Amino acid sequence: MSQVLMPKATAVWLVENTTLTFDQISAFTGLHPLEIQAIADGEVAGGMTGLDPTTNGQLTKEEIKRCEVDPKARLKLSVRDVPEPMARSKGPRYTPVAKRQDRPDAIAWLLKVHPELQDSQVAKLVGSTKSTVQSVRDRTHWNMQNVRPRDPVTLGLCSLKDLNDAVDRARRKAAREDAARKKAGLAPLESEVEAEAVDPGEADQPEVDALDSEHHN
C-alpha cells in the first residue's frame, strides 16, 4: 500500500470528523495508537490543521462510512492517478492572477485563526505583502467590505504543510520570547518604562513608502 500523505494531519482530521477507532486511524496513517489517542486528547499536534483525505483522493466518504460501522474493518487507500506535485523551489511565491482576489480572504482567515503568525509569515504564505496584511488587520483594505475569512489551503494559496510549519515556527518563537520576558522580569528594566510612554499604535504603523501593488491588480 502507498504511503499516506501527511499522516499526522490526516489523523487529526479523522479524529475530529469521524467515529473511526484509534486502531483504525492508526492502521491507516501508520502512527502509533497511543499517538492517535494523544491527538484526540489535544496533547499532540495542537493547533495543527487537519487534512481531509477525501479531498486529495486518498479516501472516499463511502470507505470511511464502511469502516465506521465495523470497528474491525480497515481503511483502504484509494489508488491515486494524479502525479505527486514537485517540490517548490525556494523564492517568492507566485500566485496565479485568478487567485489573487482570494488573498485578502485568506489573510483575514489567518489573522483570525492563527493570530500567533507574524505579518511577514502571513504575507509569505499567501504570496502577498506586509502592507496588505496590515490593511486587512486594521480593516483599511480597499475592498474590506467584501473580504470574508477563507482557509488559504482550501483556496489553493498555500499547502497544509507550509501552514503547519509556519504555525509551529511562530509558536516556538513566541515561547522563547515569553521565556525571555519572564527572565528579564526578575530585574526592573528602564526600557520597559520608556516603552510605556510610546504610543503602541506608532510601532505598528506600516512603512510610509511601502506600496501595495495588489490594489492595482
Automatic annotation (TrEMBL):
Compositional bias per record (Acidic residues), positions renumbered to this chain? 191-211
Source organism: Enhydrobacter aerosaccus
Q: Superkingdom, according to UniProt? A: Bacteria
Q: Which InterPro entries match?
A: TrcR
- Pfam families in UniProt: TrcR
**Where is the stretch described as Disordered?**
176-217
Q: What is this protein called?
A: Cytoplasmic protein
